[in-house]
């Protein structure tokens, strides 16, 4: 699906967080990197309407994130740095079902979809587990399941391997690689990007590079060394 920035910028309290940017994203796996405060998270949040452009426009599958806000947001799922913070209900299956209930689906359909997404990510055995009892890797899988159960076309993940041990990092890396949905990943975990299709590097609120993973990481290391 095409995500299009047309001279889109973002600002907060009169300060520019992201300078005007025009580009089109259509690749299946896209990485976003940069130093803290570089504009990468602002860029990602423009895609699902969590941030509105100060100028220009952003479209997702042809839907304007401002004029068609609700429809555009429904096309994009977002997983925050701490996925547990976006869990609303205490039991995993109940939390996953919550997003479907808000859409007014029948009880049988909610149960079917909830069970299906739990099995899809291999966490069916955790259905009745309390979310605060989940491990770091289980939390990430639970968050992915709770977002994808509503059927978005694009999934944005903010630091999905942050604070995970080697085993759980590998689990999340394989999960992202296997997703049929388009995935946009904000990360400082540079090896995670090795097989991505495209990587965007942000610096000081501007797009500093838009290239292959290896080249983007090379430029990033030069910037970080300054």
TrEMBL record:
Gene3D superfamilies assigned to the protein according to its UniProt record, in alphabetical order: P-loop containing nucleotide triphosphate hydrolases (3.40.50.300)
UniProt entry tagged with the keyword Transferase: no
Keyword Transport attributed: yes
A GO MF label: ATP binding
Listed InterPro entries: AAA+_ATPase, ABC_transporter-like_ATP-bd, ABC_transpr_CbiO/EcfA_su, ECF_ABC_transporter_ATP-bd, P-loop_NTPase
Keywords (A to Z) from UniProt: ATP-binding, Nucleotide-binding, Transport
Residue ranges of domain ABC transporter in the record: 3-223
Annotated family: Belongs to the ABC transporter superfamily.
PANTHER family: ENERGY-COUPLING FACTOR TRANSPORTER ATP-BINDING PROTEIN ECFA1, HEAVY METAL TRANSPORTER
Name of this protein: Energy-coupling factor ABC transporter ATP-binding protein
Organism encoding this protein: Mycoplana ramosa (Mycoplana bullata)
